[in-house]
Design a protein that fits this description.
The protein is built from 21 helices and 19 strands. It is of the alpha+beta class and 579 residues long. Helix 2 packs antiparallel against helix 3, helix 3 runs antiparallel to helix 4 and helix 15 packs across helix 20. The chain is globular and about 60 Å long. Bound molecules: 6-diazenyl-5-OXO-L-norleucine. InterPro entries: GGT_bact (IPR051792), GGT_CS (IPR055262), GGT_lsub (IPR043138), GGT_peptidase (IPR000101), GGT_ssub_C (IPR043137), Ntn_hydrolases_N (IPR029055).
Length: 579
C-alpha cells in the first residue's frame, strides 16, 4: 500500500464503492412471485411454463413444455432439430445434468470442412446439410420428463402443438428475428415456405405464423414418444434431404443417438455453491476457473466497471479461455483436465502471473495440457417446492443451418461449426481451438452453454444462463458477479453492460457505455486493446431468477416476495412470469 499509485487506486475504488448503488443503470423492476417463476426469451413460452406450474407440474415439467413451445414461437433458437443442456437441482438437493447436445454423424471426418489444399471451405460448417449435427432435443426433453417430471407427454406438448397448428401473432421482436435471416431462409424452399410470405415477402407485425408440418410432428411425438422423431418420418425426411443436398446424415445416426446424464460441475465462490455445465460444455468449468481466480481479489471494493476490476476480470478470462480452447472436448474422446482447472492452487498460480497494472499478452500464454502439438436461448425456472431448472439449447447460428427437410417443419442446426474445423483457424465466434475439439464420428462439439444454478447454505439462490456463443460464459459469469460482488438486483444484473475477453483475439470486447472514457484510457495505459465491436456476434440475452429478495441487500432485509425474475431487455419479446 506504499506505492503512491496504489493509494490513489484504493481511494478511487473506495469512492466508487461508496457511490456504486447510484451508478447502476436503470433497469426494469424484477417480476415478483410467491409460488413459481419462469423466465424465457419469448413471452408466449413464459406463459406456457407458468401455466404448467399453476396446474401442478414441477419445474422440470415446465422446462419441457417451454422447450417444445420455444421450438414453435422462437424458431431462431428454440428447436427440435438442435440440442442443448439442462441443469437440474431438485428440492432435496439432488443435482443432475442432461446432455442432449448434437453429435457428429457417423460419416464425419476430422477434415470434412477442408479443401484439397487443407484450407477451410468457407461456410461449409455453417450452411446446409453438411453443417448439421445429429439432433438431441426431443430425446432430451423426454428423458427429463420421464425421470424428473410428473406430467404426461401429451399435456406438456399440447401448448406447442396449438401454437404450431393454430399459429401465433408475431410481435416486433419476432418479426425482426425472422427478417434478419430472411435472405438465408429464402435459399431453402421448405424453410422459405414457412418463414416467408409469397414472393419472399417478410412477415409483418400482427400477422400469424402457422406451422402445420411442425404441428404434425409434435402431435406424433406426443402420441408415440421420441421414436416418432428418431425412427419415424422426420428422421427419414431429414436423411433423404441430407443425401440429396450434400449432407452425410444417415438413419443410423438417428437410431444411435442417446442422451447422456452427467454430474454437473461444482465450485464454491465466496460461500456460494455454483452448479453448472460439465464437458462437453466448457461453460461450467470456465466460469468456475474464472471465479476461483477472481475470489482472490476484492472486487466489490474495486467496484463494477472500474479499470482495476475490468483488468482483473480480463486477465482471469484470458487464462481460462486459453485452457478452454486448447484442452477441453467431449469427455468420451478427451481426458479433460477439469480438476486442475478448478483447483484453488492452480488459480493462485494464475493470480501470481497476473500483473495488477499491466495487460498480459495472449500470445505468451501456454495452453494447459495442449497435446498437439447467432442463436441460442436460455430459460430459468423454479417451482413452489424449490425445484430449479436451467436450460440452454440451440441451433447454433440464427435459424441453424437454414434448412428444413420437406414435410417436417423442423429447422436443422449448424452445430458442427463448434468443432475445430482446422486448428488455429477461428470459428463463427472467433474461437481459436485445438485438437481436443477435433471432429470425430459420434463426438459432441465443445460448447460454451452454461445453464447454471447457484445455491447458498443448501438452498437455491440464483438460476442463470444466456445465449451468446463464446460470450455465454462471461455473460453468465458477469451476472453472478453483478449480484454477489456488486450488489445489483437480478434485473440490473442481467441488463448491465458487459465486457468479454476470450484469449484470442487479444482484446477486450465491451458493449457501448460499459466503460467511461477515463476507464478506457486507464485500460489502454495498462496495455489493453479495446473493441466496442457493435457487429456480430450479438451479446446474448440472460434470463435470471433470484430467491428470497431482488438483491443481496433485499435478501438481508427479508425481501417482500419469494421469487424475483428478470429477462434481459436485449430480448425484445422475452418475459419473466410467475404466480
Ligand atoms: O454451444 C455453443 O457454445 C454454441 N453453439 C452456442 C451458440 C449461441 O449461443 C448462439 N447465440 N447467440
Amino acid at each position: 500500500m506504499d506505492h503512491p499509485r496504489t493509494r490513489i487506486v484504493a481511494l478511487v475504488a473506495a469512492l466508487s464503492f461508496a457511490l456504486a448503488p447510484l451508478a447502476f443503470a436503470a433497469s426494469p423492476t424484477p417480476v415478483e412471485a410467491e409460488h413459481g417463476m419462469v423466465v424465457t426469451a419469448q413471452h408466449l413460452a413464459t406463459d406456457v411454463g407458468v401455466d404448467v406450474l399453476k396446474n401442478g407440474g414441477n419445474a422440470v415439467d415446465a422446462a419441457v413444455a417451454v422447450g417444445y413451445a420455444l421450438a414453435v414461437v422462437y424458431p431462431t433458437a428454440g428447436n427440435l432439430g438442435g440440442g442443448g443442456f439442462m441443469t437440474i437441482r431438485l428440492k432435496d438437493g439432488r443435482m443432475t445434468f442432461l446432455d442432449f447436445r448434437e453429435r457428429a454423424p457417423l460419416a464425419a471426418t476430422k477434415t470434412m470442412y477442408l479443401d484439397a489444399k487443407g484450407d477451410i471451405v468457407p461456410r461449409a460448417s455453417l450452411d446446409g446439410y453438411l453443417a448439421v449435427g445429429v439432433p438431441g432435443s426431443v430425446k432430451g426433453f423426454e428423458m427429463a420428463r420421464e425421470k424428473y417430471g410428473t406430467k404426461s407427454r401429451q399435456d406438456l406438448l399440447a401448448p406447442a402443438i396449438r401454437y404450431a397448428k393454430e399459429g401465433f401473432t408475431l410481435e416486433q421482436g419476432d418479426v425482426a428475428s425472422i427478417s434478419g435471416s430472411a435472405k438465408r431462409l429464402a435459399k431453402d424452399e421448405a424453410a422459405a415456405k414457412i418463414f416467408l410470405k409469397a414472393e419472399g415477402r417478410p412477415f409483418a407485425v400482427g400477422e400469424k405464423l402457422v406451422q402445420p408440418d411442425l404441428g404434425g410432428v409434435l402431435s406424433s411425438i406426443a402420441d408415440k414418444g421420441p421414436d416418432a422423431f428418431y425412427k419415424g418420418m422426420p428422421a427419414d425426411a431429414i436423411v433423404k434431404a441430407s443425401q440429396a443436398k450434400g449432407g452425410i446424415l444417415a438413419k443410423e445416426d438417428f437410431e444411435q443417438y442417446a442422451v447422456r446424464e452427467l454430474k454437473p460441475i461444482e465450485c464454491n465462490y465466496r460461500g456460494y455453491d455454483i452448479i453448472s455445465s460439465p464437458p462437453p460444455s466448457s461453460g461450467g468449468v470456465i466460469i468456475c476457473e474464472i471465479l476461483t481466480v477472481l475470489e482472490g481479489y476484492p472486487l466489490s471494493f474495486l467496484g463494477y466497471g472500474s479499470a482495476e476490476t475490468v483488468h482483473l476480470m480480463v486477465e482471469a478470462m484470458r487464462y481460462a479461455y486459453v485452457d478452454r480452447n486448447a484442452a477441453l472436448g467431449d469427455p468420451e474422446f478427451v481426458d479433460n483436465p477439469v480438476s486442475t482447472m478448478l483447483d484453488k492452487g492452480y488459480a493462485k498460480a494464475i493470480r501470481a502471473k497476473i500483473d495488477p497494472y499491466k495487460a498480459g499478452a495472449s500470445a505468451d500464454l501456454k495452453p494447459l495440457g495442449a497435446k498437439e502439438s447467432v442463436e441460442t436461448t436460455h430459460y430459468s425456472i423454479i417451482d413452489d417446492e424449490g425445484n430449479a431448472v436451467a436450460v440452454t439449447y440451440t441451433l447454433n447460428g440464427n435459424f441453424g443451418a437454414g434448412v428444413v427437410a420437406p414435410g417436417t417443419g423442423i429447422l436443422l442446426n449448424n452445430e458442427m461449426d463448434d468443432f475445430t474445423s482446422k486448428p488455429g483457424v477461428p470459428n463463427l465466434y472467433g474461437l481459436v481451438q485445438g485438437e481436443a475439439n477435433a471432429i470425430a464420428p459420434k463426438k459432441t462439439p465443445l460448447s460454451s452453454m452454461s445453464p447454471t444454478i447457484v445455491t447458498k447454505d443448501g438452498k437455491p439462490f440464483m438460476i442463470i444462463g444466456s445465449p451468446g456463443g463464446s460470450r455465454i460464459i462471461t455473460i453468465t459469469l458477469e451476472a453472478i458477479l453483478n449480484v454477489i460482488d456488486f450488489g445489483m438486483d437480478i434485473s440490473q444484473a442481467v441488463n448491465a453492460p458487459r465486457i468479454h475477453h476470450q484469449w484470442q483475439p487479444d482484446k477486450i470486447y465491451f458493449e457501448p457505455y460499459t466503460l467511461s472514457p477515463d476507464t478506457i484510457r486507464a485500460l489502454i495505459a495498462m496495455g489493453h486493446t479495446l473493441d466496442d465491436g457493435s457487429g456480430p456476434p450479438q451479446w446474448g440475452q440472460a434470463a435470471g431468477i433470484l430467491v428470497g429478495g431482488k438483491s443481496l441487500a433485499d435478501i438481508e432485509k427479508g425481501g417482500s416476495a419469494r421469487y424475483y425474475g428478470a429477462m434481459d431487455s436485449r430480448a425484445t419479446e422475452g418475459s419473466a412470469g410467475g404466480y
